[in-house]
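#structure-requests
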Amino acid sequence: MKKLLLLLLLAPTFIQAEEFNLVCEGETFTFDDYGNKSNYSETIGIKVREENIKIKKYTYSTWRNDLIESSYIKDEDSISVAQTSRMGSCSYINYMVDINRVTGLIETIWRQTDSCKEGELIMQANFEGKCKKQKGNAF
């Protein structure tokens, strides 16, 4: 009986620690400082792990150095990434991801700004879509 109770208590930990893959289909919208806008359909592959997440070919985790500050949070209801990178003396790239684990909705924002021009937008790309858990290990 004690073993069963212990297993029931540890089950959420085992579930939380599982690795899984997501396939997210949606639309990407791009904007630049010249007023150019475009959109296109896109499919994004994501590998979710306890310590990091791989989105397309980039891996994100929680860490910090002189040029990059990154956070990765995964809980029962959501997964989020926030990363700021300094590119030279004035240019910054911010990347944010929010995945709702209940609805499967995903939103990403990639934005490059110029801090020397009061944060003026250089370029931005947003992705909005829906994710499904993938069976097997394709990543």
